[in-house]
Amino acid sequence: MGLGVHGGFSFSAGPIDHVIDWNPATRPWAIVPVGSCFAVVHYAAFRFAITRFDPRTPGREAEEVEVEDTTEA
After folding, report:
1. End-to-end Cα distance, the chain
2. Helix (H) and strand (E) counts for the chain?
3. For the CA atoms of 60, 61, 65, 69, what is the dihedral angle to 10 degrees?
4. Among residues 30, 27, 28, 29, which one has the least CA distance to residue 38?
5. How far is it, in rounded angstroms, from Cα 44 to Cα 61?
6. Given a cut of 70, is residue 73 above it in pLDDT?
7. What are the tens digits of pLDDT across the range 5-51?
8. Which residues pair with 6 in a beta bridge?
9. 3-state SS of the chain: helix, strand, coil percent to 5?
10. Domain residue extents for the chain
């Protein structure tokens, strides 16, 4: 029970690979819509996880409270 979509990619799995491997692929036209669906699912899952669980990741650290120096010189 698969979609029967098979494509060969060599390095980047980008548009150039897609065009070069169009003939040996099986249903190469379906790679773009299937990939787009996976992109939407991944975006929704990660957005939900980030907003729901608020993980600490680089660039999203807790803000540090700046302490004022009250010592006299």
Report:
1. 77
2. 2, 0
3. -110
4. 30
5. 22
6. no
7. 998 887 788 888 889 999 999 999 999 899 999 999 999 999 999 89
8. 26
9. 45, 5, 55
10. 28-54
